Amino acid sequence: MKTLAGKIAVITGSGRDTGIGKGIAMAFADAGCNVVISDIGVAKDHRFDESHIGTTDEMNAIVQEAKDKGVDAIAIACDVRRESEVKNLISSTVEHFGAIDIMVNNAGIGYLMEPLVEFKEESWDAVLEVNLKGAFLCTKHSAINMIAKGNGGRIINIASQAAKSGFPFAAAYTASKHGMIGLTRSNAVELGEHKITVNAVCPNHITTGLGQWQNEFFSEKMGMNYDDYIQGIRDRVPLGRVGLVDDIAKACIFLASDQADYITGEALNVSGGEEMH
Ligand SMILES: NC(=O)c1ccc[n+]([C@@H]2O[C@H](COP(=O)([O-])OP(=O)(O)OC[C@H]3O[C@@H](n4cnc5c(N)ncnc54)[C@H](O)[C@@H]3O)[C@@H](O)[C@H]2O)c1
What we know:
- The protein has 8 helices and 7 strands, in the order βαβαβαβαβαβαααβ.
- By secondary structure, the chain is of the alpha/beta class.
- The protein has one domain (8-204, 243-269): NAD(P)-binding Rossmann-like Domain (Rossmann fold).
- Helix 4 links the parallel strand 4 (102-105) and strand 5 (153-158).
- The two termini are 32 Å apart.
- The structure holds nicotinamide-adenine-dinucleotide (NAD).
């Protein structure tokens, strides 16, 4: 069934081949949704080198994959830290498709992990700027358009298990993801009168580029080999496996669909039961 037939969705951070954003975009395309594949595109400074970002070539290839599923798709490069670029993302989407129905705030960085007492100010700023300010700016500018159109809308924030629990070496990441839940709740209250729902999805461990980097980081810190570390995750997850990109995509389809009309301000754990509050 084409649950999202004819809808228009923007997914930030969806230009990395193994990422959650790409998985959401492909699932949306399978559900009949037209998609904007958006990512930073080019390395901008030493904190955003190509090994951690979705490049322009990757974005264009993902657009083609979506089109092969029979929907319309375009790539728009956007650094979510920059309001002018976010404005352009939304105005270019509306210029091409006529509207925006669904905004998925997925862009995030998780590779700046340092002990608290050594945490650099520039690392803190970089993480907060992408993970939290980026979601704020994208929500603001998509909401302006959704309100003007008067047809409601959906905002979906990809938060984390780190939005509910604390993690070592991750002060900035954990604070940014907890902040994302605050943003979700505040925006849900404010945008309800416009029939715009705002919800967060909280994954635990998914072996994307970011996920693999974090798994390697933590296994090394704990003096474990990688496979034993992953087995440790399986052992503590009630459903007995690590998460998959598709698990997150399915939750997003639900929240974007008519089935979730009366759900807003929620932060949905998709963690196989590892996180329960
Ligand atoms: N993988 C996991 O285990 C996991 C768990 C919980 C939450 N998450 C969250 O899921 C989201 C997607 O992560 P992922 O695991 O797919 O990693 P990923 O690295 O594959 O995807 C993150 C994307 O964000 C993009 N990005 C980074 N800075 C940007 C900027 N300034 N502007 C625009 N885009 C930018 C990157 O280029 C990349 O494509 C992130 O918000 C992450 O925090 C991931």
